[in-house]
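quick q for whoever's on today - can somebody do inverse folding on this one?? i tried earlier but teh output was garbage lol. tokens:
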């Protein structure tokens, strides 16, 4: 029996998020420049996106560039932005063929104008697609997202649009970049690092976490299957006892 056969199609994460890490180390191991690692990482993005759509995962969110990644050397940032633009151009067909809608979260105003334009174009062209929502976290930082939400909520309180008493979890959800997405069920991080790096702090409150040593450019279908199988073996109790769940 293959790994795929052991996946229960009725218990898939509704929202899978991935911290795609390890491109630089992958390249270094091969004696290559970091840029080659990033380029190779885009192939894993394509495989992962197609595999998730085929499996029936409804929401996939990929951490592609963090607010902190702006602090990398300019040359690397430029390469990453160029790769983003070319991937958006090249992958539009993959998204259309697979009926996938593109979405993005983050402080997009900081992206180069050409990247913003390309991103908007693909988002517009894929907006009626229904099989899966692919969200790219670009120039994304969870703390910034929360600060932003607090400002917007405060503004509404000041202008008497909402009252302080009405502020609850749902109001906060509605003011995050992820307002239209369900909670994260499974968060995968590659490359052996065991940290969250400012990704979806609020949204992963009850997510199952899965860490693998595999470097992102080496991440294949089977690695994704293994993560989902691990997820399906877990008991999600949400504070209750095991007996209450059964
Ligand atoms: C992830 O790979 C890609 C981005 C953060 C943009 P890294 O570039 O962080 O690779 P490592 O962690 O240095 O190996
Ligand atoms: C997290 O990876 C950001 C992305 C994958 C886009 P980093 O490689 O930037 O994370 P840290 O800085 O090592 O925690
Ligand atoms: Mg890294």
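ok took a stab at it. sequence:
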């Amino acid at each position: 029996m293959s790994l795929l056969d052991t996946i229960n199609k009725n218990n898939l994460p509704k929202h899978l998020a991935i911290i795609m890490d390890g491109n630089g180390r992958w390249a270094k191991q091969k004696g290559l420049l970091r840029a080659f690692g990033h380029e190779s990482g885009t192939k894993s993005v394509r495989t992962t996106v197609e595999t998730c759509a085929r499996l029936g995962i409804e929401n996939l969110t990929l951490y592609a560039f963090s607010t902190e990644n702006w602090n990398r050397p300019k040359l690397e940032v430029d390469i990453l932005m160029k790769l983003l633009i070319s991937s958006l151009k090249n992958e539009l067909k993959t998204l259309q063929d697979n009926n996938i809608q593109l979405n993005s979260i983050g402080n997009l105003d900081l992206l180069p104008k050409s990247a913003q334009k390309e991103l908007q174009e693909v988002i517009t062209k894929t907006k009626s697609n229904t099989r899966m929502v692919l969200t790219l976290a670009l120039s994304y930082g969870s703390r910034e997202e929360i600060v932003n939400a607090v400002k917007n909520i405060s503004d509404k309180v000041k202008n008497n649009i909402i009252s302080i008493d009405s502020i609850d979890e749902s109001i906060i959800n509605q003011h995050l970049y992820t307002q239209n997405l369900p909670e994260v069920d499974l968060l995968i991080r590659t490359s052996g690092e065991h940290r969250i790096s400012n990704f979806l702090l609020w949204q992963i409150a009850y997510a199952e976490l899965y860490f693998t040593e595999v470097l992102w450019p080496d991440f294949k279908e089977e690695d994704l299957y293994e993560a989902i199988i691990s997820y399906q073996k877990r008991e999600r109790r949400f504070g209750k006892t095991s007996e209450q769940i059964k």
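fwiw The chain has one domain: 4-141+184-232. also The helical segments are 23-29, 34-55, 74-97, 113-125, 142-158, 169-174, 221-233, 242-245. so keep that in mind when u check it
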